[in-house]
Amino acid sequence: MNAPHAHLAVADLGSNSFRLEIASAQSGHIERIDYLKESVRLGAGINDAGELSPGAMAQAWECLERFGERLRGFRPDQVRIIATQTLRQATNAKAFITEGNRRLGYPISVVPGIEEARLIYQGVAHLLPLDDRSRLVIDIGGRSTEFAIGVGYVASGVASLPMGSVSCSKAFFADGQLKSKSFQAARTAISTKVESLPESIKQAQWSVVYGASGTINAVTEILGGMQLSSQPITRDHIESLIAKLIKFGRTENIEFVGLKSHRKEVIAGGISALLGVMDALRIEEIYPAQGALRQGAFYDLLDRENRNTDVRERTIQSLQLRLSVDLAQANRVALVADQLFQSVAVANHRDKRFSRKLHWSAMVHEIGAVVNHTNAPRHSAYILQNIEAPGFSMEELQRLSDLVRAQKGRLKKFADLIVDELFAKQLFSLRVAILFCNARVDPDVSKVSATYQDKVFRLHIPPMWAAAHPNTMFLLTEECSQWDKSGYTLNIDIH
Prior knowledge:
Blueprint: E1 7-13, E2 17-26, E3 29-39, H1 54-71, E4 79-83, H2 85-89, H3 93-104, E5 108-110, H4 113-126, E6 134-140, E7 145-151, E8 154-161, H5 165-172, H6 180-194, H7 199-202, E9 208-211, H8 214-225, E10 233-234, H9 235-248, H10 264-281, E11 285-288, H11 293-304, H12 311-322, H13 327-344, H14 352-363, H15 376-386, H16 394-405, H17 415-418, H18 421-436, E12 449-453, E13 456-461, H19 463-468, H20 470-484, E14 489-494
Parallel strand pairs: 1-4, 4-5, 6-9, 9-11, 13-14
Antiparallel strand pairs: 1-2, 2-3, 6-7, 7-8, 10-11, 12-13
Helix pairs in contact: 1-3, 4-11, 5-10, 6-10, 8-10, 9-10, 13-14, 13-18, 14-16, 14-18, 15-16
């Protein structure tokens, strides 16, 4: 049975826990209807070589298989699976994700740190009263800490640092001993790392600071167990907790009422990180926030239902303006590419994820020209892989980068990419659209069509059109020779 259209699902694959939340969306409001959480500790399974251990991966895959069963019947556009720092960092993340996708039945999206920060801010902001106060939002996770500054629902500055409760605990408390000098060393190290934050965060003037999920939640639970108010969490609170941890002496001796057992191993690192952040940014008090990454992803899913509210559309437009793209040419190439893809992709074009990635790649295929017209596709690909692009996952940016890098020239260089038949169809649509628009005027392709079957692309072109466009026909003939060397075939039928 298909899930109702108003139901959405978001999974957060964090370093400590995997969480799946299912919610109903009514008139822009998100209401939880189901929640699953498993302590997977994927981040603790990274060895010195940066690899996830087989045991950690197996445990995580079993969890994803259970999540996949709960998600059966949901359409792809109703689901978002978000992975963060552990899978940004792990050297064998690709292997983990491939098997994870299979078990889940939905693609895992590894988001850049700044995108994680943006989503966290969205989640916090949507569960706060809407006012004009400037807010700093901090989320100390297992292996990364995110920062966002903004007013209302809009974050004006975001940043992410590769430090968190798991990494700090492994660096300073790996032997299980809770010594004063270890807390001081951890606090100093974290404070030093925070100094590398961009000035848009460090010099911002905020009215209130909110802490989201992870360590903040754990501290709130501990303070509640001690019958102390956590509204707000103060520097004195944190200092007193560190003093108690030192008295416990060892990790296994920690006995905080309200602290979950799986948090014992990482609470010392998390609290040290929190105090180091407060030191560096001169923060005296932090208010626990209700929303976080998952809530931000829910509202992002709602925004994606409409191109006018999808932040990725605004990101593409911003890139075009910042990098002086010829907007008329970008639009004409995108229009022709969209038409070609709908013809050759058959059923796949109904999944708007695929057609939109092609559309975006067409809209920014010339951004590399701002660096140098020579090797512009390579420059375009590099920019997409390295620029801040709110709304996009790392996989989406990689797909766009691959498409623009292969937009012209020898296809044999991209043999590993076009093994994916869907990618080959996107690439065919982009490359041929660029050729149809080579004169940089709107082409009349109303009587030109394309088909695909068994690795054979066909362009159907009327004789009069071919006679009127000799240069385009010459370019298309050369394109045929490239596809002939790629494992695919491109034929031109003139009739």
